[in-house]
């Protein structure tokens, strides 16, 4: 599963949607895909209008603006994306680590909502179009799911014993559980760790991760293009050949380290069946 040129196996133009595409991994993936697959239609989603437009103009992509701290904006985004003729791949890449706990207007802790709730809702609202195109659905997870998490299915928002790092680890574990859940719903779904990269994802936190990503140590981190290459790989890969649906891979595209609870499909069903009821987004 390490051949970076596998995209040549899929010559038919595809429509690829990438969230969190105004910077970092998402922007890097857009650049890579445009270079390798110039006929593909890229649709970029970002929170910042100016930054998102800048990347979209650079790579010749369409773009949409949505802040995942608002589920109303996620629903509006889904309406816009459902107007596309087809979606062949969805990169659920938006995310971040935040101080808190901070409850959004939608009633979820911000880290959980941005990293897990919003991607779940967006994928649900696009489910018919994704299924019709046999689309790949890719979650950007992290080794933080193993190193920082202490996941309690009764407290997915991490309101008990909150720390920015634990909430982020739990959210990245949640992305793996979401991947397993989507697989049970018939979607080709995969999660991956992009690598330890020099990006600005910890800029909204004042904790340990912010210190690491803004200090001298960050100069030793890999470039965002490495993570972008992995995201592009899974977005354009073939299930059963380049990845197994429902699985989580490390930055070398091998099965990645994860907590035992992340492997439990009964936990995935419990978390996302309950979330579906809360959002009026229950999978049939």
Automatic annotation (TrEMBL):
Q: Which Gene3D superfamilies match?
A: NAD(P)-binding Rossmann-like Domain
One GO MF annotation is: oxidoreductase activity
Q: Does the keyword Ribonucleoprotein apply?
A: no
Q: Which UniProt keywords apply?
A: Oxidoreductase
Xref: InterPro entries: NAD(P)-bd_dom_sf, SDR_fam
Query: Pfam families this protein is in?
Result: adh_short
The name under which this protein is listed is: Oxidoreductase
What is the species of this protein? Corynebacterium flavescens
Q: What is the lineage of its organism?
A: Bacteria, Bacillati, Actinomycetota, Actinomycetes, Mycobacteriales
């Amino acid at each position: 599963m390490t051949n970076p040129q596998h995209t040549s196996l899929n010559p038919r133009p595809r429509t690829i949607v990438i969230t969190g595409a105004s910077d970092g991994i998402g922007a890097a993936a857009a650049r890579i895909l445009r270079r390798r697959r110039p006929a593909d239609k890229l649709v970029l989603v970002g929170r910042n209008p100016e930054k998102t437009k800048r990347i979209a103009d650079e790579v010749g992509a369409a773009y949409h603006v949505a802040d995942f701290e608002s589920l109303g904006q996620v629903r509006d985004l889904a309406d816009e994306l459902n107007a596309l003729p087809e979606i062949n791949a969805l990169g659920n890449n938006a995310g971040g680590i935040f101080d808190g706990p901070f409850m959004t207007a939608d009633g979820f802790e911000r880290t959980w909502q941005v990293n897990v709730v919003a991607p779940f809702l967006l994928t649900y609202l696009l489910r018919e179009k994704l299924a019709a195109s046999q689309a790949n659905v890719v979650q950007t997870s992290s080794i933080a799911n193993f190193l920082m998490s202490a996941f309690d299915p009764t407290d997915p928002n991490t309101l008990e014993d909150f720390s920015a790092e634990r909430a982020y680890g739990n959210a990245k574990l949640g992305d793996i559980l979401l991947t397993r859940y989507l697989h049970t719903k018939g979607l080709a779904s995969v999660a991956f760790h992009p690598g330890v990269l020099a990006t600005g994802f910890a800029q909204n936190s004042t904790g340990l991760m912010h210190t690491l990503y803004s200090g001298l140590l960050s100069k030793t981190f890999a470039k965002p293009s490495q993570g972008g290459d992995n995201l592009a790989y899974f977005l354009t890969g073939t299930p059963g050949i380049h990845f197994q649906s429902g699985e989580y891979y490390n930055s070398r595209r091998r099965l990645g380290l994860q907590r035992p609870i992340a492997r439990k499909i009964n936990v995935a069903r419990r978390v996302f069946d309950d979330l579906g009821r809360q959002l009026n987004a229950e999978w049939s």
